[in-house]
Write a structure and sequence with these properties.
By secondary structure, the protein is an alpha+beta fold. The chain folds into 2 domains: 5-123, PAS domain (Beta-Lactamase, 2-Layer Sandwich); 127-287, Jelly Rolls. The protein has 7 helices and 20 strands. The protein has helices spanning 14-19, 40-45, 50-53, 61-73, 126-133, 268-277, 282-287, and strands at 5-6, 12-13, 25-30, 35-38, 77-87, 93-106, 113-122, 136-137, 143-149, 153-154, 167-168, 171-178, 182-188, 192-199, 202-207, 213-218, 229-232, 237-242, 247-254, 263-264.
Length: 293
Amino acid sequence: MLETLLKTDPPMTVEDVMDKCDGIYLCFKDKNSTFLWCNENFARLTGQTKDDIIGKVDQRAEHVKFDQQVMASGKPVLNLHESITVPDGQGGMREVQIVTQKGLLRQPGTGDIIGITVCFALQESADDWIGKLGLKQIDLGGYFAPAADSGDSALKFALPERYNGDRRHYSTNYYLLRDPQVLQLHSLNQDEQWFYHAGNPIRLHCFTPDGRYLTMDVGSDLSRGQALQAVAPHGSWFGGEILEGGYGLFGCSLAPGWAPADSLRPTVQQLAQLKAQFPQQADVIGRLSTPAL
């Protein structure tokens, strides 16, 4: 298999090359999720040999389910953020984040879809980002660090009455949330703009002052209804939770810039009122008003 010789010195087969791609993990599966081939990197990551894997059915239900969806759609998927559980080298298992490309394996001549190709690379871990960006855990849930802000200020008289003093023209920050933490319900004086950076998407749940319930999935997979950026309107109660496990890293921007007096947490009475106003979302409200782990 994959025995075509390439004119390298010494000569290498295509399989040799694919086995030696640093940082790239490859496998091919048929329509029944049986592994047709994998490279050495994939086998080592999963704590197995190639012979252990090739010819066996993939037992990871979530991955198989999505493979089937991709094959049924007839469309490849690029830059999918997902998780994979692998041995930790100490007798246990750990979950790592990966960025995956899923292509379609077609029958020569007919073009019929006969399987799927999977190519992925490891992502930075949540702890990597926390260390690199100096993120600190906050009471609302998740991890936060300030980023750029304006050196100039808007004076109080030029701002809406809800502001109790001068504010910087804008402020920005980094925010990381990892499952099973949630971003708890809170409200801001400013519209908060959210920008996807890395990891899995976040679903923002927003309860607006005019009685609407909105959800916004901030992530990289636009084909699945996600958006690279979204806005939580000022005066709304909103919170969020990570989709698909793992973690997500985001940027947030507020104008005028944020000050502690601009944040509000709901009281017990306000949460009860919110559940009464939005009975179909009572479970969501309950999840987002539980202290973060």
